[in-house]
User: Which sequence fits this backbone?
């Protein structure tokens, strides 16, 4: 988590906490309507207080704008990686890599569902793979194959030896559809082999 992300979270949590405490005190009659009206009236009449309140309001709006811009820029940076070719600069959208990795891993019979999220940082590419597996599978073996496949696929496409941090999260383990599919295929083969084609005579 970047510095600006933490600053934005702290900023908005502080504002929400202040507004929440103010609302609770008002509902519990700790602060009356007259107290609030008197405070607003005094602030309105006093020039120094108006300048102070106005400065705080402008400062809050400025901080909000800066945090929004930084978070928006960081979000775009994290979703694009770039490298230089002899003919010019190349930018690759991480969404394209995410979709390719997801389709590749979803072809494994042990994987029921798959979601991929790739983030680019200064040090490495952080790849998070979230999967739903079938039951009766060797989880260490499957996850190792998934990680190696994702790593090889990304390096082959980008063509760079970027540092990759691939983490796998298994959210659910379902029944055994792989076994059921194999059993269904076996039954179909048996039915086909057991079907007799009627003799239609010899043909010249």
Assistant:
């Amino acid at each position: 988590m970047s510095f600006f992300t933490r600053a934005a979270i702290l900023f908005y949590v502080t504002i929400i906490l202040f507004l929440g405490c103010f609302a609770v005190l008002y509902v519990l009659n700790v602060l009356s309507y007259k107290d609030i009206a008197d405070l607003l009236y005094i602030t309105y009449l006093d020039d120094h207080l108006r300048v102070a309140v106005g400065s705080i309001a402008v400062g809050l709006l400025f901080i909000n704008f800066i945090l929004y811009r930084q978070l928006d820029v960081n979000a775009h940076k994290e979703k694009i990686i770039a490298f230089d070719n002899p003919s010019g600069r190349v930018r690759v959208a991480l969404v394209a890599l995410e979709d390719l990795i997801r389709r590749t891993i979803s072809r494994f019979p042990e994987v029921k569902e798959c979601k991929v999220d790739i983030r680019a940082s200064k040090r490495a590419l952080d790849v998070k793979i979230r999967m739903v597996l079938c039951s009766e599978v060797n989880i260490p073996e499957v996850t190792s194959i998934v990680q190696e496949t994702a790593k090889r696929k990304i390096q082959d496409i980008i063509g760079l030896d970027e540092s990759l941090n691939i983490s796998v999260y298994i959210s659910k383990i379902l029944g055994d559809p792989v076994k059921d599919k194999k059993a269904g295929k076996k039954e179909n083969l048996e039915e086909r082999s057991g079907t007799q084609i009627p003799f239609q005579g010899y043909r010249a």
Summary: DSSP finds six helices and five strands in the chain.
